[in-house]
Amino acid sequence: MNANFELLTELTEAHGAPGHEDRIREIVRRELGDVADEIRTDAMGNVVATVEGSEDPDYEVAVAAHMDEIGFMVKHVTEAGFLKLDALGGWDPRVLRAQRVTVHAAEGDLDGVIGSPPPHTMSEEERESTDEIEDLYVDLGRDGEDVADLVSVGDVVTMSQDTRALGETVTGKSMDDRVCLFAMLEAAKRVDPDVTVHFAATVQEEVGLRGARALGVDLDPDLAVALDVTVANDIPQFSDESKHVTELGGGAAIKLKDGSVITNPTVRKRMESVAETENVDHQLEVLPAGGTDTAGFQNTHGAKPVGAISVPLRYMHTVTEAAHADDVDATIDLLAAFLDTETGEHDYRL
Description:
This protein folds into 2 domains: 5-69 and 173-340, Aminopeptidase (3-Layer(aba) Sandwich); 71-159, Beta Barrel (Elongation Factor Tu (Ef-tu), domain 3), CATH 2.40.30.40. The protein has 9 helices and 17 strands. The chain has helices at 5-13, 22-32, 124-128, 144-150, 175-190, 210-218, 265-277, 293-300, 325-340; strands spanning 38-41, 47-51, 56-66, 71-77, 83-88, 100-105, 108-114, 137-139, 156-159, 164-166, 169-172, 195-202, 223-231, 252-257, 282-286, 306-313, 321-324. The strands form 3 sheets. Strands 1-2-12-3-13-16-14-15 form an 8-stranded mixed sheet. A 6-stranded antiparallel β-barrel has the order 4-5-8-7-6-9. A 3-stranded antiparallel sheet has the order 10-11-17. The longest helix has 16 residues, at 175-190. The protein is globular and about 65 Å long. This is Deblocking aminopeptidase. Its cofactor is a divalent metal cation.
């Protein structure tokens, strides 16, 4: 990876469940402190770093990437000291058993593990049953009294996972959406825009695009671009290439649609033109389901031209997600080039 792998590692290994993005917020403010003309945080916790345009500061572009990761909230502590969970975001329960987690308690972080009964003691029916979040529990390795003193209902829980280079890919937890947040931060350090750009690190995307919708009330941009990951199903389970959506190593994905938005065709075409002019590897994305902050901007402050750039991701919404280093670099390159060539004179009307 040409970009700063240490920063990406810091972002992905930091913890920030929806509504509890404090640690990520600190990193964002630190990284953009020397770049932005103004940094502010709203009541929901969205961070907006504004870079004033040198030629047409009245024309405004908003770029958004979300800070939160899927996680859990403690909903009950049993007398024996086991924690029952409520999901914050869309988990696949099949991959959660026997995984290490971090419980973010008032007095500090606690290590735990999601329990998994040994198969030797399970009936055939139990082995074939489908897990649900309500069936899971966290074991802190402490007795009930200790746990009751340390953990409260409402404490959040995130996965405990390190970030590693694996061949040409980068793997770890919360690549959704920290890899795109990383791309936004790196692009912000490169650009010298003619127009004003608001770099927005949003909250609570994983529970309904809530941060972007709230931010769209405060910001009234002329153009909005969101960065998020997208599905890369280029794996053995998907022999039908039409279901891959994107492929790792194919470059930055320029979104045409997902479950929440159809991007503006003129914005998308300009993104393609910039990618071709700058020789940035890219591919087109048609995502059947799922949503991004793009829709949050489109729905809150009237009709806005919107576009989106995605980083292809394998194993999305699991414990270990994987992105290709070249795709991350391509996303940074494309976003920076797109912003540097935005003059405020492009006609995005349909």
